[in-house]
UniProtKB/TrEMBL annotation:
<dbReference type="InterPro" id="IPR001412">
    <property type="entry name" value="aa-tRNA-synth_I_CS"/>
</dbReference>
<dbReference type="InterPro" id="IPR020058">
    <property type="entry name" value="Glu/Gln-tRNA-synth_Ib_cat-dom"/>
</dbReference>
<dbReference type="GO" id="GO:0006424">
    <property type="term" value="P:glutamyl-tRNA aminoacylation"/>
</dbReference>
<dbReference type="Pfam" id="PF00749">
    <property type="entry name" value="tRNA-synt_1c"/>
</dbReference>
<dbReference type="GO" id="GO:0005829">
    <property type="term" value="C:cytosol"/>
</dbReference>
<keyword id="KW-0479">Metal-binding</keyword>
<keyword id="KW-0436">Ligase</keyword>
<keyword id="KW-0067">ATP-binding</keyword>
<dbReference type="InterPro" id="IPR000924">
    <property type="entry name" value="Glu/Gln-tRNA-synth"/>
</dbReference>
<dbReference type="InterPro" id="IPR014729">
    <property type="entry name" value="Rossmann-like_a/b/a_fold"/>
</dbReference>
<comment type="similarity">
    <text>Belongs to the class-I aminoacyl-tRNA synthetase family.</text>
</comment>
<keyword id="KW-0648">Protein biosynthesis</keyword>
<dbReference type="GO" id="GO:0005524">
    <property type="term" value="F:ATP binding"/>
</dbReference>
<keyword id="KW-0862">Zinc</keyword>
<dbReference type="InterPro" id="IPR049940">
    <property type="entry name" value="GluQ/Sye"/>
</dbReference>
<dbReference type="GO" id="GO:0004818">
    <property type="term" value="F:glutamate-tRNA ligase activity"/>
</dbReference>
<keyword id="KW-0030">Aminoacyl-tRNA synthetase</keyword>
Length: 286
């Protein structure tokens, strides 16, 4: 175990950072300072189509502008595909992954509910294919992704719990319920991993002991605990902070064109203005 707490801020370089990212970064660094730990920067660029070098550089620029610093080198997930493939192979060897040939439209048409993110809940169509049906589709080079037999995996690990912490160091424990995700995608069609797999593998690889992230990822923690147990990885403590909302009480998002830190800077905002608006004081750094 690390000699002191290790935290991380892990944005994706698919757009400019906005106030929501600034809040998460400042929150992470403030918790690291309070716990006497360190905060790492990790670039989560597994999506090769949307990740851009200019956005990667902009993340560094924006965080430095906020007065933050971090140990080098910065880990970029695009350099870690072999590690993710090895983790996925272990799950396959355990008989816990199966190929899914369904399109998004087919999943949406057949779903009978939604997952915690509000997306159509996969009805398990391809888990019922015979070995011959799977072999035929693979031979015809149908695009596919790998899904987790979540109920089987959960039965294998037995009951799991997520341990949460707050800024004062108080701990609480809740039972994890990964099965609400259904058969989650672990390896995507276009990428040899998924967010769920890569973040689980990399938190362990970097020795992360405390995870701070937004409430939008609260339920994902249950699935991450399952993957940690299956892969024999340590379980960090978790703290999910509030989200920064717009005037319509909707979460800020790159996809919705939320005003970026660069836009605010061009409009005359200073880093101190951002900190004050988000409820943080003077800069801290490693």
């Amino acid at each position: 175990m690390p000699s002191r707490p290790v935290l991380r801020f892990a944005p994706s370089p698919n757009g400019r950072l906005h106030l929501g990212h600034a809040y998460s970064a400042l929150f992470t660094w403030s918790v690291a300072e309070a716990l006497g730990g360190i905060a790492l920067l990790r670039i989560e660029d597994i999506d090769a189509q949307r990740s851009k070098p200019e956005f990667d550089a902009a993340i560094i620029e924006d965080l430095h502008w906020l007065g933050l610093s971090w140990p080098q080198p910065v880990l970029r997930q695009s350099t870690r595909f072999e590690a993710y493939a090895e983790a996925a192979a272990r799950l396959k060897e355990m008989g816990l992954l199966y190929p899914c040939f369904c399109t998004r439209r087919q999943v949406a048409e057949r779903a009978t509910g939604t997952d915690p993110d509000g997306a159509p809940l996969y009805p398990g169509t391809c888990r019922h294919l015979s070995a011959q049906q799977r072999a035929d589709r693979l031979a015809k080079c149908h695009p596919y992704q790998w899904r987790l037999l979540t109920d089987k995996a959960h039965a294998l690990t037995g009951p799991l719990a997520v341990t949460s912490f707050d800024i004062k160091g108080n701990l609480s424990e809740l039972a994890a319920d990964p099965e609400k995700w259904g058969d989650a995608v672990i390896v995507r069609k276009e990428t040899p991993t998924s967010y769920h797999l890569s973040v689980t593998v990399d938190d362990a690889f970097q020795g992360v002991t405390h995870v701070t992230r937004g409430m939008d990822l609260y339920h994902a923690t249950d699935l991450h605990r399952l993957l940690q147990a299956l892969l024999g990885l340590p379980a960090p403590l978790y703290c999910h902070h509030r989200l920064v909302l717009d005037d319509g009480d909707i979460k800020l998002a790159k996809s919705r064109g939320s005003q970026s830190l660069a836009d605010l800077r061009a409009a005359g905002w200073t880093a101190a203005d951002v900190r004050q608006a988000l409820g943080f004081g003077s800069p801290t750094s490693e």
